Amino acid sequence: MPAADSRAAFFSALIPGLGQWIQRRRPAAATAFALTMLLVGVSAWLGRVTDRAVEVLVFMVLALPCWVLQSYDAYLGEPAAGPDWLRTWRRVWQQGHDVRFLGLLLLISALNDTWIILKNLDYLLPFYCTKPGGIPGFAAKAISPILHIMVGYGFLRLRRWGLLVYLVYAAYGLTNGLVNLACFGPGRIRNTLLGAIVLSTAYILWRRRVLLGDSHPSHR
Questions:
Q1: Lowest mean pLDDT: which of 41-45, 51-55, 87-91, 120-124?
Q2: Contacts of range 162-167, beta carbons closer than 8 Å, 24 or more positions apart
Q3: DSSP secondary structure letters along 176-217
Q4: What is the pLDDT of residues 127-143, one digit of tens each?
Q5: Which of 12, 59, 91, 115 makes an SS bond possible with 74, Cβ 3.0 to 4.6 Å?
Q6: Could you tell me the pTM of the whole model?
């Protein structure tokens, strides 16, 4: 197995494909750069034709994972045999790094939610067909970042309880979103968040074995 190449991973984190180029893996470098830039461009284009929320969502679930994956590919170095990206994805799948990445996204989301809450203290967040103010309203707004932190940490450490807390979070987000949809009508941000919850829940249920320990015994 080739030695890990932290230097190449750093360069690929700066510019997609640069680490592979330094390693003289020209086809892998071209693929990493082209695919990552394509997804970044798609997210930017969607932001122009829809709104900022869609752009951020597509970047976080498609472009950023591709960027991170190609940097990890550079870190792993030249594969002993077989296609570069297939080797890299197998390692990600076996080690549960995809679930860890989702955990990182949730922690980033928690920081973003907290910043938005503190900057907009007067905003009344829809909460099951109501818009509570004062302490109840602040508590309602705090639910999301708190759950994001708990689930994010659980996913990063591949803990069993992370799956349970995520299902609680998904149930809350889905029911709250659907009730508010019925009361206040559709909106791009609300629709985008509902779609994200459905897709992420389907993926987590598909990958539940990683959190339950069936495929990664060293996570506990």
A1: 51-55
A2: 162/103, 162/211, 163/204, 163/208, 163/211, 163/212, 166/201, 166/204, 167/201
A3: HHHHHHHHH---HHHHHHHHHHHHHHHHHHHTHHHHHTSS-G
A4: 999 998 888 988 999 99
A5: 12
A6: 0.83
